[in-house]
Amino acid sequence: EEPGSWEETFKTHTDTKPNGPTSVGLDFSLPGFEHVYGIPEHADSLRLRTTEGGDPYRLYNLDVFQYELYNPMALYGSVPLLLAHSARRTLGIFWLNAAETWVDISSNTAGKTLFGKLLDYMQGGGETPQTDVRWMSESGIVDVFLLLGPTPAAVAGQYAALTGTQALPPLFALGYHQSRWNYNDEEDVVAVERGFEEHAVPCDVLWLDIEHADGKRYFTWDPSKFPRPRDMLERLAAKKRKMVSIVDPHIKVDSGYRVHNELRSRGFYVKTKDGSDYEGWCWPGEWGCAVGGVLEGAPGGSMLTPALLPGSAAYPDFTNPEMRAWWASMFAYDQYEGQIQRSGGQHRPFVLSRAFFAGSQRYGEGGGPPWGPPSVCVCSPHSSSPPLCPAGAVWTGDNAAEWEHLKISIPMCLSFGLAGLSFCGSDVGGFFKNPEAELLVRWYQAGAFQPFFRAHAHLDTARREPWLFGEENVALIRAAIRQRYALLPFWYTAFYRSHRHGLPVMRPLWMEYPEDTTTFAIDDQYMIDRALLVHPVTEQGARGVQVYLPGKGEVWYDVTSHQKHHAPQTLYVPVTMSSV
Questions:
Q1: What keywords are annotated for this sequence in UniProt (predicted)?
Q2: Which pTM was predicted?
C-alpha cells in the first residue's frame, strides 16, 4: 500500500491510521419487532426512527453547542444499548464498544431473512414486522451481549447485572437545585439564598459555575469575589443547604499554579507525537490536560465539567497506570467504600454528569464500570470524550428556552432510564435564551416530576430566580416545587427500588403495560415508579391535554380531584396554569 493511503484530513487535522482500517460491525435482524428504543444520547423521540436514506444514529461523546432536535447527531454521552419491544417479548442488544459508533436502523418486511419468513408462516401467514439493526464502530472488538428478557423488567435486570444499578442518591439531591452561570460573588449568593427564604420557596442546593475560580485556576477561589468562602459555605450549611462548585478539567499552564506543576513534573499530561506536553486552548487560555482534587469545605462538593472545544485535544492520559492511580486518589474512588461504611450508608456524595457510558449509573458516589477509567467521587463531568468519570445523575445538556426543548426533555430522560441512567433532568427554563413566564412556569411544573430537578442558565441570559416573574408566577412555581418536596418519600422509595432492581425511576408506559400496543409510541407521558402517571403540559397556551390511561381493568385516580377513571381509555383533561 502507498504510504499515507489510510490518512484522512479534516481542515487542519490529519488522522493517521498506520495499521490500516480497524472498524468492526455486526448486523442484527429482529423478526416480530417494529419498535426499538435506547442508544442515548440523542435529542429525539423515544421510539427510534428508521435511518434509511439518512444519517445513522451516532454514539460519540461531544460537547455540542446548541444541539439540534429530532436529529441522530451525537451528543454528550453514549450508551450502546438498544431495546426491542413487542406485545410478546422484550429483548436487548448491548454493544460493548466505547469507540465512535453508528447505529443504522431499517424496517424490513418484504426483504426479510429466511428465518423471518418462516416465522410468518408459523404464525399463520401475513407479514410479520421486522427491524434490522446495523452496528458499526471505528475500532475495538466485537463484544456483544444479547439480553433475552422476555419482559421489560427482565431485560432491565439483565443489563443491571452487567453494568450495575442506579446509585441511591442522598435525599437532598432529590430536592430543588438553583444554578446559574454565574452567581457573581459572595454577596450575590447571600442575596439569592435570602430570596428563597423571603419568598418561601424550598431549595436544597445552590450552584456556582466556573467563574468562582481565580483566573480559571480550578480548585481555587477568586479572592476578590469570594474572599471568605468557608464562611459562605458555613452559612449555607447552617440553613441545611448545600453548594456545588463546577470545576473544569482544563489545567491552566501557569508556573505558579500547584496543580499544573504537579501534573507536569509527574508527566501526567497527554503527549504529542514528539513526546512534549500537548497544550490546547479552552476557558483558562493555555492549558494542559488532567485534573484532580475535591474542593475543601464544600458541603455539596464539586461538579467536574470537561469541555473539549474545537481545536483543543487535551485529556488526562488514562493509558498511564500512575495517572489513573493519581486520578483515583484525588477524587476518592478508593475512599468511597470506607466513607459509606463509616457513616453507615448515610453519607453519599452527589454526582452529576453530562458525559457518560454504560455503567455510569452505578457510581453516583465514585468509581466506575470495570472497563472505564477510575472515577470521581463528589461530582462529575459536564461533557465530552470517552467516559471521564461515571456518575449517578445526568442531564440533557445545554438546551434552549423553547417549548420544543421542554417537550424533548421527556423522551430524552426516558431513553436515559432505559439505559440504566435513572437520575435525569433538564435545565429548567432552558440554558440558552430567555423564557417567557408561561414557559418558565410549565418547565418548573414538568421539572418537579423529573428525577433531577435543577434550574440553570447561561451567562448572557437575564436573571430568572423564581420571584422575578411577579407574584402570580412565583406562587405557581412555589406550588410546583412544594409538590416535589411533598412527594420526596415517594421519590426516595422509587430510587431505592431502582437501586435494588435496575428498573428506571422514570419509565415508559410500556414497561408497566408491555402488552398494551397503544403505549409503544407514547413519549409525552410516563410512569414514575409503578404508581404515578405524569403528563406534563408542554404546549403553549394549552387548555387541555389528551392522557392515555393504560391497563385493562385498571382504575386510575386524579391526584388533584381524586376522580376515578377506568382504563384503558384516552381522557381529555382540561388544564389551567396551575395544572401539571
A1: Glycosidase, Hydrolase
A2: 0.87
